[in-house]
Amino acid sequence: MKIDESTPRARFFLPARQGAGAALVALYFLLLPVLLSGCGGAPAGVAPPVLAPPAVPAASDEAFLDDVSHRTFLYFWDLADPTTGLIPDRWPTRSFASVAATGFGLTAYPIGAERGWITREAARERTLHTLRFLAAAPEGDAAVGMTAYHGFFYHFLDPSTGRRFEKVELSTVDTALLLAGVMFTAEYFDGSDPKEQEIRRLAERLYDRADWTWAQPRPPSIVLGWHPESGFIHSDWRGYNEAMIVYLLALGSTTHPVGEDAWGEWTSRYKTDEFEGQRYLQFAPLFGHHYSHVWIDFRGIGDPTIQKIGLDYFENSRRATLAQRAWAIRNPRGWKGLSADVWGVSACDGPADVELPYGNETRRFWTYAGRGVGADFVLDDGTIAPTAAGGSVPFAPEVAIPALRAMAGRYGEPLYGRYGFVDAFNPSWNYPAEIAKLHHGRFVRGLGWFDTDWLGIDQGPILAMIENHRTGLVWKTMRKNPHLRRGLMRAGFTGGWLDEAP
């Protein structure tokens, strides 16, 4: 199946003028319920009323962040497939492995070692195991039995074999998120130990294999993806969204680099507007303001386009964060639970695809959707994604940390458990099973709807961005990577740490 920006459902979930990112996100949203239906589905039902008081976060912010980070780290440490090292897209629902989540997992292991949750040796072994699998996995244009082609990996893989899951696309952005994690491990494991040397060799091999020029069927832009059954997807990455990392890694390649005009094509669809008192580059779901920032410290550096606007990309994400919080405070649609400390609209699960009475009108609710709020786009059904605040901790710690604490303290176990925050919750959902059947998750009387899954692409930004706020580990480590530095400089970035010796 192919979806481009002319597809009605794609336009419904994210407007075409948001750029090519809309199409890929829409593709994921459309396919996910189908894919999950073949993976066992998620539990649904009505939970009994909460009898015990909610869990109270630790007394200090530092202790609380320790707890959030440790729980979130364990998602990757506990759940990586023992054969392939791949990370599941979600848990406990039985699911395919996610290439992007695996990139976040590779980023998580050094954080765990630095925090003392595991040893450096254990982190090294897990990393090496994963990279060996990725480097040896079969590549080719066959529709079945392959993991990658032209150095790009399929979006979802069978966790135990690492082969393509059903008919998902070969994904440039998910490969970029994987490679960012791979390159982070190459810089972190910088010792003379033979295994650390092997990590560096495998990381270079994986990065060098990505044929970015092949992924330009309509140069100078880079395509979203490719299917062996039908060829390239009909949309390219343009405009501000999560795919900055795609272009920067493509520009930095020493084997298959794209031309410098590719960055100009990427920025050609930027849209700056004002929303909730903040002027910034628009992308409605907050995840688009997080993903590339996990590995790139954008503070004080900028390309000519963002400098002309008068910002850097870090400040842009800060403004997006503050605008979302202001939206929740104003709460123009009157959703239950939104406040200065409970906010964050981003792509996430939801209770059901259904229209139901809410107040004096009928409201639409969704399952997995590209939720977001912005100047020219609002898709909001009262569902809150904690990763929105978690991924924003470095940008606006004064509002993001209190939000995480408030959500954990107010809602307790249905929201905050074994692996930290579940994907999403909706305090406005007050519909027992006899009124509305849930697609997944659970209804807790008096509190609302709560997801029962943790998602790898949520957990990665929460863990890494909290660590970047506290120590700058990922940012400082990636500043040394010659490929990233080269990509930034070819895109025209100057200033800050780029002007210093690595």
Q: Gist?
A:
The protein is 40% helix and 12% strand. The protein has 502 residues and is α+β, with helices and mostly antiparallel strands. The protein has a single domain (9-302, 309-488), classed as Glycoside hydrolase 144 (GH144) (Glycosyltransferase).
Describe the structure.
The structure is a single chain. This protein has 502 residues and is α+β, with helices and mostly antiparallel strands. It contains 16 helices and 22 strands. It has one domain: Alpha/alpha barrel (Glycosyltransferase). It has helices at residues 8-13, 20-37, 61-79, 99-115, 120-136, 172-188, 194-209, 244-252, 261-267, 304-309, 313-330, 386-390, 397-411, 456-470, 473-478, 482-490, and strands spanning 44-47, 87-88, 90-91, 97-98, 148-149, 152-153, 156-157, 170-171, 225-227, 231-232, 272-275, 278-281, 354-358, 361-365, 372-373, 378-379, 416-417, 420-421, 425-426, 441-444, 448-450, 454-455. Strands 1-20-21-19 form a four-stranded mixed β-sheet, with no helix packed on it. A three-stranded antiparallel β-sheet has the order 2-4-7. A three-stranded antiparallel β-sheet has the order 8-9-10. A hairpin with a 2-residue loop joins β5 (148-149) and β6. α3 (61-79) packs across α14 (456-470). The longest helix is centred in the first third of the chain and has 19 residues, at 61-79. The protein is globular, with a radius of gyration of 21 Å. It starts with 7 loop residues before the first helix and ends in a 12-residue tail after the last helix.
